[in-house]
Automatic annotation (TrEMBL):
GO molecular function, one term: methyltransferase activity
Keywords carried by this UniProt record: Methyltransferase, S-adenosyl-L-methionine, Transferase
Listed transmembrane segments: none
GO biological process, one term: methylation
Gene3D superfamilies (alphabetical): Vaccinia Virus protein VP39
Protein name, UniProt field: Protein-lysine methyltransferase METTL21C
Species in which this protein is naturally found: Phaethon lepturus
Origin superkingdom: Eukaryota
Amino acid sequence: DSPVTLKILQNWVPRVSHYFDKEHYLYVGHQIVIQESIEHFGAVVWPGALALSQYLESNQEQFNLKDKKVLEIGAGTGLVSIVACILGAYVTATDLPEVLENLSYNISRNTQNMNMHKPEVRKLVWGEGLNEDFPVSTYSYDFILATDVVYHHAALDPLLATMVYFCKPGTVLLWANKFRFTADYEFLEKLCNIFNTTILAEFPESNVKLLKA
């Protein structure tokens, strides 16, 4: 199947406050308030997160997250994890230590009063301590979610190793990314050499591709 061509819907709702660092979104019938920070890449909502949130909302029959175990790597502000929670998943949102405070705040404030599985926020440094922190005998996931984790940084090989570590037979990896650099396409080529990979959707106006592996 050829990938569908979509636009990233501007699912923002009118602000109820005038804080410059908060964005209001509407997914799956819920208003989601995200606090951003300009101090770290991981504390900003990037277009891949909007694309994947929109796709999960619109394709619930194809990707039914209800009661599924979901791990988000590089969760950033937590938008995708929050959407997965609303869709009924058991969610573990992970990122670097310096991002966790803002991530925890966003996930807590957007899920605390809802009837859903309580999400978990944990530290995960790609490629480091995987066997110790997430032993295979204890941790298994139905879905691995990742958005805009590939850009011009030095941790691409550890990122790929982390994806391989968590993806067991039957695990579905959903990765949405804005493709900017040669390194992005090189990473995609490596991913395709390891996983059975298909492009589910493309968002040409933002250069975002959504892949299933």
